Amino acid sequence: MNPILKNILALVAGIIAGSIVNISLILLGHLLVPPPAGMNPMDMESLKTFMPMFEAKHFVGPFLAHALGTLIGAFTTAKIAVNHQLKFALAIGVWFLYGGISMVIDFSSPMWFNVMDLVLAYLPMAWLGWKISEKQ
User: Fold this and answer.
1) H-type helices in the chain, by residue range?
2) pTM above 0.70, yes or no
3) Structural domain count, the chain
4) What do you get for the CA distance between the two ends of the chain, in Å?
5) Predicted local confidence at residue 37, as pLDDT
6) Which three-class secondary structure string do you get for 64-100?
7) pLDDT digits (tens, 9 = 90+) for 92-135
8) What SS3 state is found at 58?
9) Is 20 within 8 Å of 76 (Cβ atoms)?
10) I want to staple 121 with a disulfide (CB 3.0 to 4.6 A). Which of 67, 76, 80, 82 is the partner?
11) Which of residues 46 and 118 earns the better pLDDT score?
12) What is the span of the domain harbouring residue 25?
């Protein structure tokens, strides 16, 4: 297969894999730590309305979803990419970081969560996904 095409497919596969992990953990988090009564977790307007009622426990699932989604996405990309695996893994981190930044802008989550999420869940996890892929 053409190396450029394979690298593009690596990026697409990483985005898909990371997104599947992300949404799966978000949904699991809502099952383990139910949202406030009356909130529909699949409705963005409902989420915006109820976000001020969230406790710290409600942010564990989203943080893990963001961190592990990025980790798996970067790992997948680094395993498939023909070359420049670190650059492609970090590109996945930037992709998901962009999503994290847009969530911070759109939702009024606590500053401690915003900082922790943006600093720890994306680029460090992308680097870690690349590092783990080297050992496989």
Assistant:
1) 3-32, 44-50, 60-80, 85-106, 111-120, 123-135
2) yes
3) 1
4) 22
5) 87
6) HHHHHHHHHHHHHHHHHCCCCHHHHHHHHHHHHHHHH
7) 999 999 999 999 998 889 999 999 999 999 999 999 999 999 98
8) helix
9) no
10) 67
11) 118
12) 3-135
